[in-house]
TrEMBL record:
It comes from Otolemur garnettii. GO terms for cellular component: cytoplasm; microtubule. The keyword Cytoplasm applies. It comes from the Eukaryota. The keyword Ubl conjugation does not apply. It is found in: Cytoplasm. Residues 133-153 have a biased composition (Basic and acidic residues). GO terms for biological process: microtubule bundle formation; microtubule polymerization; positive regulation of protein polymerization. This is Tubulin polymerization promoting protein family member 2. Residues 126-175 are annotated as: Disordered.
């Protein structure tokens, strides 16, 4: 049945990156991932905020300090998201459509590598750390100044091309 296919997908996502999970319950992080990877969260009708709200709502029906939800509660959550995602359908029809989206899906691992490189990219794009001529190309907020920041591109001052200290001596003294 559709539900058993959905439950297979639910189990795959439930244990994803969570070695303590038996696959019968899913945590918030993996619940969001499932909604993302299966296209239930589309960023228009259903946003990550919707997904979080629904998760926390059904989680409360279980126990005050529950961290996970069961497939039964997952179904309730999906009915609710289905009404947002497939507005024109009944909750049950919408649920079937969500199950269709879930069918045969595996947790995408592409996001995993992305997460680790984020720091490096942040560092590279943190303009406050830029020095020398690169610094001149951005304003305080890190917005590029475009051509204005690179106007002195042709510099025939007799320095060896690529000489890092060009022009720094005068700048320091006149400042």
């Amino acid at each position: 049945t559709m539900a058993s296919e959905a439950e297979k997908t639910f189990k795959k996502f439930a244990v994803f990156g969570d070695s303590s999970s038996s696959g019968t319950e899913i945590n918030n992080k993996n619940f969001s991932k499932l909604c993302k990877d299966c296209g239930i969260m589309d960023g228009k009708m259903v946003t990550s905020t919707d997904v979080d709200i629904v998760f926390n709502k059904v989680k409360l029906t279980r126990a005050k300090n529950a961290r996970t939800i069961t497939f039964q509660q997952f179904t309730e959550a999906m009915k609710e998201l289905a009404q947002k995602r497939f507005k024109e359908k009944s909750p049950d029809e919408g649920l079937q459509d969500i199950y269709k989206l879930m069918e045969g899906k595996d947790p995408a691992t592409t996001g995993v590598t992305k997460a680790t490189t984020v720091g490096a990219v942040d560092r590279l794009t943190d303009t406050s750390k830029y020095t020398g001529s690169h610094k001149e190309r951005f304003d305080e907020s890190g917005k590029g100044k475009g051509i204005a920041g690179r106007e002195e591109t042709t510099d025939n001052s007799g320095y060896v091309s690529g000489y890092k200290g060009a022009g720094t001596y005068d700048k320091k003294n006149s400042a």
